[in-house]
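Two entries, shown back to back:
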Amino acid sequence: MTALRQGPARAVADVTQGMLLATIDIAAPPHRVFRAVTSEELTRWWGSEETYRTTAWTGDVRVGGVWRTEGISANGKPFSVNGEFLVVDPPNELVQTWRYDWGPADNVTTITWRFDAIDGGTRVTVRHEGFGDAHAACAEHALGWEQVLGWLSLNFEVRP
């Protein structure tokens, strides 16, 4: 079994293919990390006061079920992201569509989450694809996923 690598999230975008990969090791078991991504718990960790905060999460976590998040940007502007669950295999894999309200109407992409058990925790890998010719959006999302996975990891840090 692979061991836990402490450190920040890493992401790389292949803008010509319209996809990115991001990964981080988290000191928590896969079932806990899966739950943090697929429940109201997501509102505790997804965001920061400097960028944006996710304030609501709803979802029917089953194949064909829908999900939605809402939030507020740092400048006070509301936003939402929604989609459908395509694969639900707890605690190993989650595949969902991703549509955000601040982009073009046809901006549906697909996210595959992998939660692999490693010594000391879980290796989380995100594959976000379907950006097509939206090269700048693909590259921006790679940076965004590094931040998001960092927030997810902080959710499991021991607090005094």
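entry 2 starts here
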Amino acid sequence: MDLSEKATVVVSKDQVSSDFGGEAAILNLRNGMHYGLDSVGTRVWDLIHQPRTLAELRDILAGEYDVDAPRLESDLRNLLSQLADKELVEIAG
């Protein structure tokens, strides 16, 4: 999946999630599969409960984590692609 900086990402309506000590547990309501996210993934998950562009996510996370920009963008794109493949997020644009 090729995500542009202007692509908008938001959590799917077909999931429920809970925070367990800083890590997210997510249930896909369509297929009954459970997924988990580490603390950084959970931060992204929290941010996309309202629609955000890839650029917005990158800029917010760059201010919160000590990581070089190319690595951050690559990891973010990878995470969002995985979430999209599992139908846990909706991506527009």
